[in-house]
Write a structure and sequence with these properties.
Shape: globular
Number of strands: 23
Largest sheet: 11 strands, mixed
Number of helices: 6
Oligomer: single chain
Length: 370
């Protein structure tokens, strides 16, 4: 469900992107998670768009510039399938080709093409009929880089195609057309601000809930393409600049203050009460964490855990969300950012920082809302 808040010159869409401000990134995304389960039917549409809605045209950065989307993070091997797969060097020279499928692996800072050629990084890989990367249908062109003995695949996606594709994964097609249009504006604004301030020199956004969910250009229903087309060139603004258009599916009753989520204030991202998601299937959730998984997470966060491992919420924000998690074992106790704990546990398991951690048997019950 989408919530529109208009205040002064600011336009805020609260609805799945939740990345921290660029240049001030904490160790994990803020406590504004995205539930992936769509509502079974369209919710009632509450109100229209104000006639005085301030609008900005798409900035110069978007002029002919595609969105660079990191797919799957660091990998040892990437399998690409498609017809007439071709690769070019960064300078544009043809360097390799194949039919059907090819496996790319990493050797130091070079890319091995199949079982043979070693290629300088990066390479651009394309197929006119599109490609499947690790079994997922994606786009017609990717850039593959080798860094730190790992491979990174970055999809190069035209902006408006990206907007429609993301919207199709962030809302069901049964939503009201105006709600989908609002979502398209938020997705576009988020992407453009990310393009101004990229996460890394190699990419603007990642394909998962850290930014906006992108799963390729296949199976994008016409309603999402219409929403993108109907709002083409429209963005959200605050005092003449692109707004930080973060959104989620389900807030659990109250949104979070930006300062509590990220440590830095954003004047138009204030905590507000919300009852629009009371019937969302993602409102309440529970994850049973085993002792083995708890030990793995503890070790990744700096505590070598024994059988006496304890995990608890140490600090909460003003909205009741976890701010810090205390991990204790073998006489060692450490408080870590709750966002870092959630990242290690998995965003699909710990869906929000509005949670309780309770020891149960040989593990823990982590239950929450939103």
């Amino acid at each position: 469900m989408l919530l529109l808040v208009f205040a002064a010159a600011a336009v805020l869409l609260a609805g799945c992107a939740g990345a921290p401000p660029r240049g001030e990134a904490p160790s994990a995304p803020p406590a504004l998670p995205a539930g992936r389960e769509p509502a079974p039917s369209a919710p009632p549409f509450r109100g229209g768009v104000p006639s005085a809605l301030p609008r900005l045209k798409v900035p110069e950065i978007a002029s002919g510039r595609p969105v660079r989307v990191l797919l799957g993070g660091a990998q040892k091997e990437i399998r690409i399938a498609g017809e007439s797969i071709r690769a070019w060097s960064a300078a544009g020279a043809p360097v390799a080709g194949g039919e059907g499928a090819v496996a790319l692996s990493v050797i130091g800072e070079k890319i091995r093409w199949g079982a043979g050629k070693l290629l300088d990084s990066p390479i651009d890989v394309a197929s006119p009929s599109g490609m499947r990367i690790d079994g997922k249908p994606l786009v017609a062109r990717v850039r593959v880089s080798a860094r730190g003995a790992m491979l990174y695949a970055v999809a190069v996606v035209p902006l408006e195609e990206y907007v429609a594709a993301v919207a199709s994964r962030e809302a069901p097609p049964s939503f009201h057309p105006e709600a989908l249009s609002a979502l398209a504006v938020a997705v576009r604004t988020y992407a453009l601000l990310s393009m101004e301030k990229p996460r890394e020199p190699t990419h603007d956004v990642v394909a998962g809930v850290e930014d906006q969910v992108f799963e390729g250009l296949d199976h994008v229903a016409e309603v999402f393409r219409k929403a993108a087309a109907a709002t083409r060139g429209e963005v959200l603004s605050y005092r003449g600049s692109l707004a930080r258009a973060v959104f989620h599916s389900t807030c659990g009753g109250r949104t979070e203050n930006a300062k509590d989520a990220w440590g830095s204030d954003v004047p138009y991202l204030r905590s507000v009460a919300c009852d629009d998601c009371l019937e969302s299937p993602a409102r309440k959730w529970e994850y049973r964490m085993t002792a083995k998984e708890g030990k793995r997470i503890a070790l990744s966060l700096g505590v070598r855990a024994k059988e006496d491992l304890k995990i608890s919420v140490a600090v909460r924000s003003s909205t009741g969300r976890a701010g810090k998690i205390r991990i204790s074992s073998n006489g060692v106790s450490r408080e870590v950012a709750a966002a870092a704990f959630r990242k290690e546990a998995g965003y699909a398991r710990v869906k929000s920082l509005k949670m309780e951690i309770v020891p149960v048997g040989n593990g823990w019950s982590i239950a929450g809302e939103g």
